[in-house]
Structure formats: structure tokens, C-alpha cells
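Figure S4 source data
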Amino acid sequence: MTRFAILLGGDLTVMPRLQKQLAGARVIAADRGMIHAAVLGLTPELWVGDFDSAGSELKIQYRDIPRHIHPAEKAATDGGHAIAVALERGATELVLVGGFGGQTDHTVGHCGQVLHLANSGFPAFITGGDEEAYPVIPGSLKIDLPEQSRLSIAPFTDLVGLDIENVKWPLVKHHVPLGSTLTLSNVAHGSVRIGLQSGHAIAFAYPTRD
């Protein structure tokens, strides 16, 4: 498995769990996402973007990092371009780092991207360090979480045959309609298994500190 970390420009809290998730990953920064490189102790192999938000200090500090420059008027976000490049370079799984905060439309877009990646056979998740988001598609998903972590599943469609195991309020083959809040604010007893027959959702996890 070849894991790529895509550094995005959102909020980030550096925690030991995050450092473990990024261990051994190849790194691509998307425009302003380069601000996270130093605090994470990472050196990206590529810097992608239109560089409208990176700032002159970052450009000077990381002047030796190779760049893929895109015009400001483009058909995808800088993060979207970074993901495409990672896949071209052999990524088999992706971590979108700093994918929360800032503009809500971008956060929702990142959720759509990890759902698309999962449907295409590429495991992916979003992390802000203290918040994570995982795509839930038909099949089975295991999320390793510390005990007492909060877990919410937000339906993006009607969910059919939803199973949630090893949580305070488990479900078995449950139907959850779009717009339901039934599956918000559950509590994990450790690693959680989610099963789904049909539909799409995002599982939001708020890990307790390891």
C-alpha cells in the first residue's frame, strides 16, 4: 500500500494519533496547505496550486520544493489537483490533512472527494487531528478509535441495512433516511465496525487523546 498525505489549508491540531497515521506517507501540499509541513515535520515531494493563498513567506521558505502551478480559473480545487497527482504517482490510499475549517463548501467538497475515492477503490479519510471523516459506502468499514471517542454517521442518501458495532448504541440492519439525526453522537467502545447494504454517508470521529 502506498499512502499519500495531501496537505490542505484548513484547521489542524497535531496529536500523536495523527503522527502515527502519517508515518511513512508520501506528501503533496496543496497551496496554503504547506503551512502544516513544518509543524508535522514533513517535507512534501511536490507543491500543487495556483498559489493565490500560499503567501510570500511560504514561497521563500519552500522555494526548493518542486511545484505544479495551475491557473486561478480552473475546473477543480488545489486539493482536487493534488489528489489527482497523488493517484498518478501510485497512491493506493490517501489522507486529506487539514480538510476541516475555513469554508464549509470546501469541507463538504472534501467529503464528496473521499466518497468518490472509496467508490473507486481507494481508501481515504479526512483529518484535522482532533476530528476525522471516513466514507461509508456499501460493504464493511473498520475504524480504530480510542475508547469513549464520539462517533457520528451523517447520511448523504437514505441508508439501507446499516450496522454499527462496538458502540454505546449499536444498530443492526437499520434503515436511516436522509436527514435523520439518529446516528449522531454515538460513543465508541474501541474499534468500530460499520456495515452498509446500500447508500452513502460520512462517519465523523472525534478521537479521545491516546
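Figure S5 source data
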Amino acid sequence: MEPTHSRTLPVAGVPAPLRGRGVAHDPPNRFERVHVERDGWTDPEDPAPRTRFLRDRSRTIVARNQSPDVGFDVSVNPYRGCEHGCVYCYARPNHEYLGFSAGLDFETKILVKEEAPELLRQALSSRRWKPQVLAMSGVTDPYQPVERRLEITRRCLEVAAEFRNPVSIITKNHMVTRDIDVLQRLGRHDAVHVTLSVTSLRRSIQRVMEPRTSIPRKRLQAIAALAEAGVPVGVNVAPVIPGLTDHELPAILEAAAAAGANRAAYIVLRLPYAVREIFEAWLEQHFPDRAAKILNRLASLHDGKLYDGRFGVRQRGNGPFAEQIRTMFEVTCRRLGLNRPGLGELSTAAFRRPVASGQGELFDG
């Protein structure tokens, strides 16, 4: 019988978990000199910290990536911060650039780019724009809960479909199926691919590690719905957490392939900057009996360190255990027919710039 991984009392020095949140505290911002130390969330008028949405006044929307081990060059991020609350999220330290914390702030103070669709239209209309795959999103999830109400991601996709600019989406939310109609429009021009990220098939793990994401069953249902609609879809087993979820890798790939996924990838847990402290505190809250094993196994992937930020190593690790994970992934993919050559290749051939005119719609080449 699987144990229930939750605690009603805090571990010494570790704040008690907050229901529906991945993190229960705010670690110091590495760019700020002053930090208020608080023993967990202690506001008596708001025992469950609410999410605040703040306007992001960015005047550009296309971000450019120069990391050689990331599979995209440009991305669109409608939101900064993410209410999904995934405890391990490598994007948490980005919130520190905004003057916030990588902890509870990251999942309760969400910056919203309300003008993202209009800014994207301007970018794609520019003669300087070279048609290429847009990743949505490169940092936080484009289908986090508030998207249901604001529909910023959907409107960005509608712009991409109008220009027939290819889009690659990665999400942990079943909400992506809401936009199947727009995705099908892109799909007619080989201009879309969707990836569902699945960390574990166990609800008990997902509930405390990714508290506001879609449950594993719903993510598999999303894969099935997209595949049935003819939208190319894959799975990303990420992050693989040594000693906690690594043994699930074959089962996740099998479930995703059965649902209709045609491509797969994996990423080993990354702990940059404050994410290390956050993850260690989370282990002490929910898995104190195996925390040491998990951290030791993770260190074995990075020459004795919990994280190695070098390109090419940070997402895979190195050494015998990293090789074991890689081999298990590749053998399972071959057995299931995942990642066959030629699958999921996106094309820019149909790109166009719509121009309104009195005679209808004209397009330049």
C-alpha cells in the first residue's frame, strides 16, 4: 500500500506545507540586501495565501534564447511566475530579477502580459522577422489556471495561425485541449507540436509536487484528445528525480504512447540557485525518510554536487547512473516506436503576412 506523503506538523527548521502550494516560504532573493524572515505563512487574515495578478508592461513579447542545449531559439511567455506551483521549477530564480522571491512569491505573484497577442502580431508583421518555430512557453506554463479566464495564450495562438508561423507548446495542463480548433489550423501546415510534461503517474506524488497542475490521468487524456484530433503530440518525462520518480520512466512512456504520443524526451532534475534550498525543504516536509537517498543519488549525476549548470550536462547529468537513465529511455522509446525519424518536423513554408485591403486579404511571399 502506497503511503500518504504529507505532514501535519513542520519538520524542525522547515515551514509546514501549505495546501495547494508547492512552497511554504520565501527564501532570500540573491539580488536583495534585506530579507524578512518568516516562519512559514503567518497571516491570520489570509491563512491560504491568495494569488495576485500584476500587469506586465513589457513592450516586446518574443524572447531569444542562446542556450545551446535548449531546443528553441525564440519563445513567447504570456505569464511570468506560475500558479501551478511545481516545487522543482527551474524558472523560479527568474522571479528574483523582478524583486520577488523564488519561493511562494513565484506561485502567488503572477505577472500577466495582457498585450501579448498584439505584441506578437507586431513582431510577426515586421520585415525583420525570420519565420521560425515559436516556443510557448520557454519559462512558465502557458496554460496555468488563470489562462482559462484571460485566454492570452489562445489569442497568441490565433495570431500564429493567422500568420501560419509554427508553434511548439509544452504544458502540464489539460486546458490545452480547449484550443484544439486553433491547433488544427496550424497543423494543416505542419506548424504545430504539443508536448505534455509528465513527472509521475502517481497522484500522491503529483498532489504535493505539482499541486495546481492537471492530475496525471488528465494529462494522458489530453494526449489522447490531441492525437485523435490530428494534432502532433508528445510527452516530456520531466524532471526525472533520482530515487523518487526515475523508476517510472518506462511506465510514463508506455502510457503516453498508448494515448497517442509519437515523440518523447526527458530532463533530469535541475536545482539552480534558490531551487536547491526549496527542493531540500520540500523533501524534508514530504519524504524525510528518503531525502538523503534522493540527494545522494542526484549528486552522483553531477560529480558530487547537487547541480552542475554546464550546457549539455545540466539536463542529463553524467556518470553510470545518468547513462542508466539514458539507456532506459532510449530502449523504451525504440520498443514503443517513439521518436521515429521524420516525425513532428515543423515547417515554415506556409508562413505569410496578412495585409488588410479593400479587395480582401493580400499576402506577400
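DSSP finds eleven helices and twelve strands in the chain. The chain has a mean pLDDT of 89.
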